[in-house]
Design goal:
alpha/beta, Rossmann fold, seven-stranded mixed β-sheet, 7 strands, globular
């Protein structure tokens, strides 16, 4: 079982840099409005998608894992919120061009083919729209084994540096702005922490495979966490 499978099985919410507290922060920084068509790419168990729906937006939640989408549907039903859910890949979004006012993703791009996903996001965005991504950021001079262990523990295909993120966004046809960036450690001091087991099904945390995956996460953070950064990026299509 990999890290993302463990998050799904344990029903963890807010498993991205800064957790739900950072989500609430960036939601106050961007021009979203009631009625906006918003795509949540890699929605996980749906905390952000539901928060957007509560604000009156027309939300579509996409995730590659059926189990994640099932949890989103259950939460939406319990909260009496309307949103669309789709099982699918961020690398092949099943919508025509200019379908959304905004696309958001939190700790998603590093697990994908980044250029492919950004091109897809650019395609489905209206020219008047924007995207927001919250992502891990690699140090400029990482310790030995940093990227290899990030790939092994998390399944991360690529974790760019801050400047490399900017290059990826520009190459995909976006004008990027950094809304917030820094170290994970400093972020933990600035916003209330919501750790990797936030909102989890406590019973599932005792599952052997889930426990092993989360233990590897904690071990990685103990070894490399002080060098791990984060970024909150807002992307506007270049026209």
């Amino acid at each position: 079982m990999d890290y993302l499978d463990a998050l799904s099985r344990a029903d963890v919410v807010g498993a991205h840099p800064g957790g739900l507290a950072l989500t609430e922060w960036w939601l106050e920084q961007v021009p979203l409005w009631a009625g906006a068509a918003v795509l949540d790419v890699g929605c996980g168990t749906g905390a952000t998608a539901l928060s957007l729906a509560e604000r009156g937006m027309r939300v579509t939640a996409l995730d590659v894992r059926q189990e994640m989408i099932d949890r989103v549907r259950d939460r939406a039903r319990q909260a009496h919120l309307a949103l669309d859910t789709v099982v699918g890949s961020a690398e092949a979004l099943p919508w025509p061009p200019a379908s959304f006012d905004a696309v958001i993703g939190e700790s998603v791009l590093v697990f994908t083919d980044i250029p492919v996903v950004l091109r897809e996001v650019r395609r489905v965005l209206k020219t008047s729209g924007f995207a927001v991504f919250v992502e891990m950021v690699a140090p400029t001079h990482p310790p030995s084994g940093w990227h290899q262990e990030a790939a092994r523990v998390y399944g991360a295909r690529e974790v760019p540096t801050l400047s490399s993120w900017r290059d990826r966004f520009l190459a995909a046809g976006f004008q990027p702005a950094v809304l917030r960036a820094g170290s994970i450690w400093s972020l933990a001091r600035e916003v209330p922490p919501s750790g990797p087991v936030h909102g989890a099904d406590v019973a599932m945390l005792g599952d052997r495979e889930v426990g092993r995956a989360l233990a590897e996460h904690f071990a990685w953070m103990e070894r490399f966490g002080q060098t791990l950064g984060y970024g909150v990026f807002m992307l506007v299509p270049k026209v």
